[in-house]
Amino acid sequence: MTADSLLFFILAAMTVGSALVVILASNPIFCSLALAMAMISVAGIFASLNAWFVAGVQLIVYAGAVMVLFVMVLMLFDLKDEVRAFSRGLVSGFFKIASVAVIGGVIAAAVWMSTETIFSTAPAAPTVNATVATKQLADLLFKKYLFSFEAMGALLLIIAIGAVALSRIEGGTHADK
Amino acid sequence: MGRDSFEITVNIVKMFAIFLLMVQAVPILVWLERRGSAFIQNRTGPNRVGPLGLIQLLADAVKFLFKQPFMPERGVAPLYYFAPIAALIPGALALNAIPLSTPIKIEPFEMLGQMWGPYTFLFQGYDIGIGIVFILGISSLGVYSILLAGWGSSNKYSLMGAVRGAAQGISYELALSLALVGILMVYGTLSFKEIVDAQAGPLTFMAFGKEYVIGALPNWGIFYQPLGALIFFAATFAEANRLPFDLPEAEGELVAGFHTEYAGFSLLLFYIGEYGHMMVASALLATFYFGGYSIPFVSPEAVNAFWLAKVDGANTAAILTAVTHHLSLLVRVALFLWIFIHVRWTLPRFRYDQLMSLGWKTMLPWALANVVVTAIWLWLGHRT
Amino acid sequence: MNSVLPASASLIPVLILTLILLAFGTVIIVGTSLLGPKNKKNNRAQMMPYECGIPGIDTTDSKISIKFYLTAILFILFDIEIIFMYPWAIKFMDSIKDGTGGYMLGAMGLFVVLFVVGLVWEVKSKALDWN
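^ inputs. structure came back:
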């Protein structure tokens, strides 16, 4: 076993393990922390594929920003009632079984469709300098996909305005009186 | 990691040694902080245990070891105990990614009846190609330790301190990462080593297509990015939760903030994390803006030649060259650490609204202006 | 820097160091709990959450201003915008040299204008004011 494949299996085990904790733990704080751990492991997988910049973005944006927001919000709410609402009752039981069926189907389909590639030995990805790879990414992002990039800038602006507008609706702690 | 057992062992020991460098700096810095604050406030400071009170912190550490560890009754045990351990991780991982000196080239040598080498050992834990983004990502995880400690203690002071700390940390991270965009534009690389190499020689800059050389000044980043350096340094104060930005630990209102419920060695682990953060910030400031481990006007080859003439053996000379450059970096780091301490004891604390408005309304726009001006200046200077 | 090591060469050390740190921290936490005095009497006053001289009030879920969430959301948005400047920043000098500097400046200029509009709107709407 080469170092690269060993690394992949460690990172994959970490990702799957923490993802399992996300759905199995009943305390929402533990779930969100495990989700942050899964994000970090996925960043490691990106890095092991030489997608260094994507790995960095995964770490900074998802693990360092989005999950911090999740954890912060969960820590400040009393979630005891929610735990009960989602662990009892016929409707939630139906949803549980339905979601198990859906995820099982997805996994079965993924295995079925990838049987050919799983057992083939693909050539190792060429290793490239991280700075050079990021420059290639910049080339694509700012030349070929420039419109998507600017559209994303506009989208982020709309989200920023929307978030502030939402926080001001009646009943909020700093609603316009 | 390495091709044989010797290289692997050295690499692992090296990582642990850099971590220990961070840990052992804490007693020295705490001593310096107490003596320094005493000096600034015209007091004596610790002076009983050992010469100049130097052994004081060793005594404190032993005392910390024998304190009774306990968790408040409604604390969440896994989070309460994991938080101080998590506080160590960002600082140590980041410090290991910064090149602390020139690489050491080892010629083949004989040991235990076997030939070993040649090797090239980096004077850093690991060389991550995307160094700068890696460090930003790792330090953005520092918030978790604060949040875990705050929530795991089940105390409202801890929780409020933690939430304040998280909000403050993320607010200043914006200004910090935006200040670095200027450095990336000037040097066009994400690798620390290339940034340090680019700062060798006398100050050289391009303006309107012409090249100017100022022989008296080193080619440091501070001369290209003075505003960026200032914003970066100020933002690292906030990231490290130091005065004047220590709202998460504001004693007047929040007792001790997120570590109210901690005592003994687990409290010390938080301090190791905080001082580790300061060391990383100082090393980064030196690397980006003050030439890193390079010695002004002296190339690493010249240092190596000097040591080759002094001692016999290329390996010894290579190690001494690396140590010389490491000292050159440590001088800068020590200077910045002293600024951290001096600022703590001379500036008053901000109010929370002032802190947030400084981060969002002053430092973020100025960092953005720095990026715009740098971009236009570079474009005018290098346009052909 | 033509010879590039595979990703595992720098990622495995990171994992090893993380393990070393976790082990170090665990040894310290477990070690101090073995070395320190034990709490035999189950001292209730000691185990209560800290409070400033009055009996502890039974609340951990105190109301926290929505400003903290708003700050976190705005942080995510601006953080994404800033991280997109990184590949642009390292490419910029190359672009100037191969003559596409003006184009790159314009591409990021439009993005920065959107960024500034967002920031100015946040300031004007007093979303960043804390009282």
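Chain A touches chain B at residues 3, 29-30, 33, 36, 40, 43, 52-53, 55-57, 59-60, 63-65, 68, 71-72, 75-76, 129-131, 134 (CB under 8 Å). Chain A has a mean pLDDT of 82.
thumbs up if we can close this ticket
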